[in-house]
Amino acid sequence: MTISLKEELLRSGNVIFTNKGVSMKPLLRQGKDLMIIEKRKAGHILKENDVVLFERPNGDTVLHRIVGEGEGGFYILGDNCIDPEFVPGDKIIGVLTGVVRNGKKRINVTDPGYLRYVRLWRKTYPVRRIWLKVKAAVRGKLKGASGN
Fold this sequence. Notes:
- By secondary structure, the chain is α+β, with helices and mostly antiparallel strands.
- The chain is built from three helices and eight strands, in the order H-E-E-E-E-E-E-E-E-H-H.
- Strands 1, 2, 3, 4, 5, 6, 7 and 8 form an eight-stranded antiparallel β-sheet that branches.
């Protein structure tokens, strides 16, 4: 029997795993970095810029950054994504506390270098959003032109 990420997090209180996908690039590199996630404790106050593990209605678990707060939940966005999504607060099950880079160096979310990355990445979002849209449009035109 395979235990899900959510089940393991709720059972043990923390999980360490590698990500699938590119939605949190450049913070997380697929198959190269380990994420350290702690279970969201009762009363834990989430704040903007926290990276949280949440469950989508289809049961998928996703790790993205809080970029805003709304009625009963949060607006969440991957560092490599264009549009935020709204996630009810009760669907957030864990919080990123650190990253292990290349199996060696642990980077805590309280480290000054990590906090500088977050500030820079958030400030450049408007420009990155335009860039990602242009890149997606060009990629779509190239696929259409090649007949794929």
